[in-house]
């Protein structure tokens, strides 16, 4: 076949524009493509929820991509091994209860599962604000291209409507902070010291609806709760993403 550059351009523009227009209205917006966010998006999509994941960076994977200090391995404890198995992520037991997986395989397989289940990924898009109207409920996100933000260009954003938001933005808990900064009743206690056992043990309790329409998961959940951090053990991130998917799905599917 003879290739036409303009047809290639039209194919990209037309299909992505169509998707972006379709996703101006969605059930659940997940902010952040780290391990908790991708897990959450995959499981929401499997439940039939219309879910879009917004990631400000070029690549999906967040803090899982680089493993521990750039050694591309992650550790997952016994309690979360079933999630590795569910997504077909190979692992080896290093010592009893400590399962080691390759970080690139983990991110890739979680992401592939989310795509197959129907989650839509919007990378290079930063969430810069939220929509809260008269009923006091989080009802949407204000988004812009990350390069616009990085360049400091004065270009107005666009808005997305959703029934629920999952803040999976990691240590910064950016969406929770946006709500709190503008007067929302959402106390943020800030992340604590490194204490893996405690941080992993308590994360499910902190994975919850912290403001009407806003669920927190992953490190964002611990940061809001004033809980410890855990470093490159990822079972809590996977389990927290799973719990956030259950909670958000229950909120939007009735
Ligand atoms: O930090 P991140 O991987 O979050 P997580 O799912 O996992 C934490 C672990 O990676 C690790 C740990 C536990 O083992 O301590 O750090 O809680 O991924 C968060 C993602 O959110 C994106 C950010 O680029 C990253 O990829 N993000 C943050 N703020 C925004 C955002 C925003 N305003 N808009 C879009 N994406």
From TrEMBL:
Annotated binding of NAD(+), by residue: 36, 55-56, 63, 127, 154-156, 219
EC number: 2.4.2.59
Gene3D superfamilies reported in the protein's UniProt record: FAD/NAD(P)-binding domain
Annotated positions binding Fe cation: 156, 171
Binding site for glycine: 229
Single GO term (MF): iron ion binding
Family matches, as Pfam families: Thi4
SUPFAM superfamilies the record matches: FAD/NAD(P)-binding domain
Cofactor: Fe(2+)
Assembly and binders: Homooctamer; tetramer of dimers.
Alphabetized PANTHER family for the sequence: THIAMINE THIAZOLE SYNTHASE (PTHR43422:SF3)
Protein's job: Involved in the biosynthesis of the thiazole moiety of thiamine. Catalyzes the conversion of NAD and glycine to adenosine diphosphate 5-(2-hydroxyethyl)-4-methylthiazole-2-carboxylate (ADT), an adenylated thiazole intermediate, using free sulfide as a source of sulfur.
Protein name per the record: Thiamine thiazole synthase
Organism, scientific name: Methanofollis liminatans DSM 4140
């Amino acid at each position: 076949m003879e290739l036409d550059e303009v047809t290639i351009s039209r194919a990209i523009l037309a299909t992505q524009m169509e998707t972006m227009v379709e996703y101006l209205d969605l059930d659940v917006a997940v902010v952040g493509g780290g391990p908790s966010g991708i897990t959450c998006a995959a499981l929401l999509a499997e439940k039939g929820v219309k879910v879009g994941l917004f990631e400000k960076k070029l690549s999906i994977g967040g803090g899982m991509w680089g493993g521990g200090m750039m050694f591309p391995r992650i550790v997952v404890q016994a309690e979360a091994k079933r999630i590795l198995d569910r997504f077909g992520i190979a692992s080896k037991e290093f010592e009893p209860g400590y399962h080691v997986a390759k970080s690139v395989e983990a991110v890739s397989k979680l992401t592939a599962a989310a795509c197959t289940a129907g989650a839509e990924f919007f990378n290079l898009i930063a969430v810069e604000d939220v929509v809260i109207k008269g009923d006091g409920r989080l009802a949407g996100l204000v988004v812009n291209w990350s390069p616009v933000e990085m360049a400091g260009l004065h270009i107005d954003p666009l808005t997305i409507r959703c029934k629920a938001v999952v803040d999976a933005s990691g240590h910064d808990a950016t969406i929770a902070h946006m709500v709190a900064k503008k007067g929302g009743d959402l106390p943020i206690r800030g992340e604590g010291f490194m204490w893996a056992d405690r941080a992993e043990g308590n994360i499910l309790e902190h994975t919850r609806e912290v403001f009407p329409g806003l669920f927190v998961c992953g490190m964002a959940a611990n940061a809001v709760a004033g809980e410890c951090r855990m470093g490159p053990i990822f079972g809590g991130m996977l389990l927290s993403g799973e719990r956030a998917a259950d909670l958000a799905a229950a909120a939007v599917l009735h």
